[in-house]
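dumping the sequnces here before i forget
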Amino acid sequence: MPLIAIAQNRRMSDYVESIRRAGGEPVEVVPGAETPEQILARVGGLMLTGGGDVDPSLYGDPPHATFEAAETGRDQFEIALSRAAVAGGVPFLAICRGMQVLNVAMGGTLVQDIPSQITGALDHSIREPRHHIAHEVWISKGSKLSALLADHMEDGETCHVNSRHHQAVKQVADGFVVTATSPDGVVEAMEMPDAPFCIAVQWHPENFWRTGEFRELFQGLVQAANNRTK
Ligand code: MN
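..and the predicted 3d for all of it:
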């Protein structure tokens, strides 16, 4: 059973359950004891999760009035993990804040506050219930994400997702392509076509483990981790 490192956050249970149900063994990792390279050497894959805002100074922007920092040390730790995973071809699933961390780690930028900075934006901050369907996303045909979610799309490209974010990817990092957008143009997923498995989504697939709408995302990560550790 492949080990999947999950960078610790305040609310782990749905992430842990999603990995277990996909056949992986979750391992919570924290800053300090090991280097990112040491962590990634003993696991098959990496998952980054939700949380506070990435410090905008890390992509050269002044902070917006709504800026709410993540726990101390998370930005540095998760950016280092992201860079090491991409450099090492480690299977990597990045969720919500994790997608934003990955994009900044690889040189991209963020929209700091969707409601005040994107005219006509949909409501992307529907907090409860956590699996509430907030909006649709249009998934790029031919992407790895599209192949994984094939059984859950209408008309081959539309998928319905939850949404709890006020930030989003703006300038996509080099080497990545956008693979899903919502109808208001907000970036909802990206991936690295040249990597074995490097997929990021802005919604929260882990909240659906009871009903399995996005189980293929976690299965894809576990399978890629299994292939790596064989
Ligand atoms: Mn959204």
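Residues 74-88 form the longest helix (15 residues).
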